C-alpha cells in the first residue's frame, strides 16, 4: 500500500512550496500538509490538511497512524530574528518538535525524516569565506544554538538508534509564492515586492553585508535530492553545507535596477545587522556535491528575473 508523507509547518515559506512539489511528484492525496495555523486556500484545498502542533507528541503519533505516514519533513521552527525576541519559545519549539520526530523514528513509527539546519550554526570565529563543512561553529544567536544542537542530536539518533534523518544547512531563501517568516535574510524577498510597488526600499542590513543565498527552486530540489539518495551515500548525518550564490544588498539592488531603472535603495541597519555579521559570507558545499551530486542552478541575475516576472503577475 502507498504510504504517505507528512509536512509539519507546511504553511511557511518553504513548507508551502515543498508541499506543492511533493504533491506534484507523489499525488495530492499522499501528501499530508499540516501547520499550527491555516495557510493559503490552494495549499489547504489541494490535498489533506491538518491543524497540528509539532511539539505535541501524542497528536503527531495519532496523525501518523491515521494516514499511515512513513516520511516526515519537519519545517516548523522559529526563525533567527523572531527567536532573538522570544528565546525560550524558540528553544522549546525548535528542540521539542525535533525530539518528537527523532523519537518517532527511534520507535520505528516513521522510516525517514528531513529536518533543515541553517548557516546560522556558524559564528564569529568561523572562517567567513568558503566556510568548510567541518569547522569552528560557536553560534551567537538563539536560533543558531538550536540548529547546532539539533544537528548534534540528528547525528546521535542516526548513529545510536539507526534513525534515517537527513539535513541541509539552508542559506537565506528567496521566493515569490510565500513571504518569509522572520529571518535575517528576509530583505532579499521584501526588496522585490517594494521594487515593484514603490520603486524604493529601506534595507535593514548594511550595503556591503555579503550573505549566502539560494532561490527556492534550488532549495526544494536539494531537499528532494537528499531525500531520494541511497542511505549509504548520505554520509553526513548532522547537516550538509549547501550553497548557490552570495551577494550584498547593494549588489542585489544593482541587479534589480537593470530591470527597474528608477529603483532606489537606502540602508537603515537594525538589530538584524549583528546577526548577519556573525554569519559566513560564502559556503563550501563540496561534500553535498560529491556525496549526492548537488549543484545549484540559480544565480542572482536569474533569481531577479524570475522574481520580478512572477511578482508582476
Ligand atoms: P516559516 O516561519 O516561514 O514557517 C514555519 C511554519 O511553522 C509556519 O507556517 C508556522 O505557522 C509553523 N509553526 C510554528 N509553530 C508550529 C508548531 N508548534 N507546530 C506546527 N507548525 C508550527 O519558516 P521557513 O522559512 O519555511 O523555514 C522552514 C525551516 O527551514 C525552518 O526549520 C527554518 O529554520 C529553516 N530555514 C529557513 C531558511 C529561510 O531562509 N527561510 C533558511 C535556513 C533554514
Explained architecture:
By secondary structure, this protein is an alpha/beta fold. The protein has helices at residues 13-26, 41-45, 57-66, 80-85, 87-106, 142-161, 187-197, 216-228, 249-257, 272-277, 286-292, 300-312, and strands spanning 4-8, 31-35, 49-51, 69-74, 112-114, 117-118, 165-166, 168-170, 172-174, 200-203, 211-215, 240-241, 245-247, 264-267. The model has no long low-confidence stretch (mean pLDDT 97). Bound molecules: nicotinamide-adenine-dinucleotide. Nicotinamide-adenine-dinucleotide is lined by residues 8-9, 11-15, 35-37, 53-55, 75-77, 79, 93, 116, 118, 170, 172-173, 180-183, 185.
Keywords:
313 residues, binds nicotinamide-adenine-dinucleotide, 12 helices, UDP-galactose 4-epimerase, domain 1, 16% strand, Rossmann fold, 2 domains, three-stranded parallel sheet, alpha/beta, six-stranded parallel sheet, globular
Number of strands: 14
Radius of gyration equals 19 Å
- Counted up, domains total 2
> In percent terms, what proportion of residues is strand?
15-25%
First-to-last CA distance = 41 Å
Bound molecules: nicotinamide-adenine-dinucleotide
- Bin the helical content: 40-55%
Low-confidence stretches: none
Mean pLDDT: 97
Looking at CATH, which topology of the largest domain would you report?
Answer: Rossmann fold
Number of DSSP helical runs: 12
- Can you tell me the CATH superfamily of the largest domain? NAD(P)-binding Rossmann-like Domain
The CATH class designation of the largest domain is: Alpha Beta
What structural class do you assign from the helix and strand content? alpha/beta
Shape: globular
Compressed to H and E, one letter per element, the order equals: EHEHEHEHHEEHEEEHEEHEEHEHHH
CATH architecture of the largest domain: 3-Layer(aba) Sandwich
Main beta sheet, described? 6 strands, parallel
